[in-house]
Structures are given as C-alpha cells and as structure tokens.
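During the no-cost extension, the postdoctoral fellow (Dr. R.K.) reprocessed legacy sequence entries with the updated structure-token encoder. One reprocessed record is reproduced below for audit purposes.
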Amino acid sequence: MRIAVISDVHGNLPALEAVLADIKGRGADFTVNLGDCVTSPLWPTETFEALQSLALPTVRGNHDRWIEELPDDKLSPAGRFARNALASEQRRALHSLPSRIDVGDGILACHGTPDDDSTYLLEELLDDGRFVPARRDVLETRLESAAGARVVLCGHSHRQAVIHGPSECLILNPGSVGCPVFADIPVAPNLEYRSPHARYATLTKKGERWQVELLALEYDWASASERALANNRPEWAQALSLGYVK
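Re-encoded structure tokens follow.
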C-alpha cells in the first residue's frame, strides 16, 4: 500500500498541480491532506475548488479554522485575503473538516499535534523565533492522546521530517506543498534558509514496516511570486521565489 501525504497547500495552485501530477506518475492508493488549504494572497478560491473536486481525506488546519472563527483584526493579511475571496459556504466547509483522522492500519493524521492544530509536533519555537527539534519528553507529552498509533502524520511547521518516536511510532511531516515559509510571515526572517520547492511525501508499506520518501519538486514558482506581488504582498513573493525572507 502506498499513501501520498500532502499538507499546507496555502492556496498555491501551481504547486498543488505539480504535486498532484507527480503523485499520479508515481502511483498511490490514496492521498491524505493535512490541512491549511487556502490561506494566502494567491489562489484561495481556485485551490479550494480543486481540492473539493478531489474529495481527499482532509484534516482541518489552524488556518482552515481561523478563517471562519477569528475577527478580521485577529487574522493575518493572508487570512483576510482568503476570507474575502471565499464564499461563506466554502469557509464553513473548511471549518467543518475533522481535527484528526484515523486513516486505518494504525495511522493517525493531524495538522499540528493530535490535540492542538496550532502547536508544532516535532519542533519547539524559541523566543528568538528559531526552531529546534522537540525534546523527547515534550514529544511524548504531545503524543499522549495518540497512544496505539503506529504512524502519526503531521504538518503545520512546513518542515519535512521523519522521526522514530515514542513506542516505535513513526512520525512524518511531508513539508508544505505551497508555502516554504509561513502564512504568518513576521516569524519568517528568523528561520533557517529553506527552498521554494513544492514538498510532499509518500508512505509505502513493506511487509510490517513503512518506507518514507520525502519529495521536493520544481514548479513554476515565478508565477506564484508574481501573483503575490500583484496582490501587494512582496514578502510572500520573496518567500515563494527564494524559500526565505531576507
């Protein structure tokens, strides 16, 4: 069995199209989406419609929740752009997505941690904005409600990672399809260098074990950068074209 895992599309339609084409070429039994589908100054409506047509098992991300729950003054500019672009029923559809999904075969899918879509599972964010790997005791606490899961799929940090965690649990973050940095850009200048590639992962069962491939694809990120500039978001344009914000 092979599962494709995508996350954090953030309204980047050309990146999503590149990833979906690659998945089709490699073959997968099904694809799981770990949320944060549309928030961006890019193509929120078109991306929503593309994902809706696929009807993938999809977890609700923090931005999928915030787009319906938060007042305008609490949303990031990218969040306000997406809110204004979507119809009310589209926003409600995002908000009604499940916070976690039992994929089957011992696989649990969530966005952040199994209990909190706004907390990073595999990282700790320091006061200066830098990421460090989560300490073992922190990771164990974050996974307490996932007892029994053999594989945990998570997104949110936009960082690809494979971890052999507590109780021999495999933890996979596929990285971000469409946003190499963050939808909340202010933290971005403190992050490490990244790259503009569209990222996802495959999870393939080999006997009783799982094999992971972490994939980074070239796509037309110049068009995504130009779209951000056209919508008056130069910091997004820079992140999309370089993979970091200066």
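The CA atoms of residues 48 and 241 lie 23 Å apart. The chain is about 30% helix and 20% strand. The remaining legacy entries will be reprocessed before the final report is submitted.
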